[in-house]
Design brief:
heterodimer; A: five-stranded antiparallel β-sheet; globular; B: 154 residues; six-stranded antiparallel β-sheet; 4 helices
């Protein structure tokens, strides 16, 4: 794991309510690096979030818009946050319902920009 | 999609719907085809099955020589389409899945739903295998034609 990747995961997992973070190769949907709590399926999160980010980027492009800088998928028991970075990498966080989403968003956008 | 065994159909349909794979082949470790999706010619299926089984046998032997466990899957990334080969245990013995997919999906998605396919096949497989009749030389052509008819509907 590169120091930049390690630093990104450390920053995100320090935020309250974050259950884990991954760096994902968006086009492949594979895990590049991860720091996850037990019970979080990193392979599934990487594959599905990579696919989601790719499809949303293509959707935005088709609509003549810039690709999204941040995604928040909200569920009953928590959510998934994703921040695309350089070199086809995406920083993903799996969060519980009590997570500090504002801080997580700031940290993720900042950390994702330093990936690669 | 065509399958020789009916209990394979639902897990394979689920996999195809979720993974967006272009071609899928399920076979035994000896290369006998169990189900196929996307192939239009029987010759292509038989060739792909033989090559896939050979590749898996080679990589498993390579893993053994290197002193490690079996490889879980082998992925060949191409420009326009990619191919994944994975061997797995079923109550009916060791099977191989060969999946060809394009840029409309990803290797991560294919791996994820392939793992689910393996679990669903293990759950759906009948506990008591039906005893296979002995393969006799005089029945070989009839058996082969029956399998091809089931896999291609003609």
């Amino acid at each position: 794991m590169t120091p930049a990747t390690q630093a990104a995961l450390d920053r995100v997992t320090r935020v309250a309510g974050v259950r884990g973070a991954l760096v994902v190769a968006a086009s492949d949907g594979l895990v590049v690096a991860e720091q996850l709590m037990d019970g979080v399926d990193g392979q599934a999160a990487a594959a599905l979030t990579g696919s989601l980010v790719g499809r949303l980027a293509r959707t935005a492009e088709s609509a003549g818009m810039r690709p999204p800088a941040f995604l928040h998928l909200r569920g009953d028991a928590g959510g998934v946050l994703a921040a695309p970075g350089p070199d086809d990498l995406v920083l993903v966080a799996v969060v519980g319902p009590d997570a500090n989403l504002g801080l997580a968003r700031l940290e993720m956008i900042e950390a994702a920009g330093r990936l690669g | 999609m065509r399958a020789l065994e009916p209990w394979v159909v639902q897990p394979l349909e689920n996999f195809l719907a979720e993974s967006a794979a272009r071609l899928t082949l399920l076979m035994t470790s000896s290369g006998q085809v169990v189900a196929q999706h996307g192939f239009s010619r029987s010759l292509d299926v038989m060739t792909a099955a033989a090559l896939g089984a050979g590749i898996v046998a080679s990589t498993e032997e390579l893993a053994r020589l290197m002193g490690g466990a079996r490889f879980e899957a082998l992925v060949h990334n191409g420009q326009r389409q990619s191919c994944m080969l994975g061997a797995f245990a079923t109550p009916r013995g060791r099977w191989i899945g060969l999946v060809v997919f394009g840029p409309e999906t990803s290797v991560g998605i294919v791996r994820l739903f392939f793992d689910q396919l393996v679990q669903q096949l293990a759950a759906a497989a009948p506990r008591e295998p039906t005893p296979a009749p002995p393969m006799l030389a005089e029945n070989f052509e009839t058996e082969l034609n029956a399998s091809l008819k089931a896999l291609f509907g003609r």
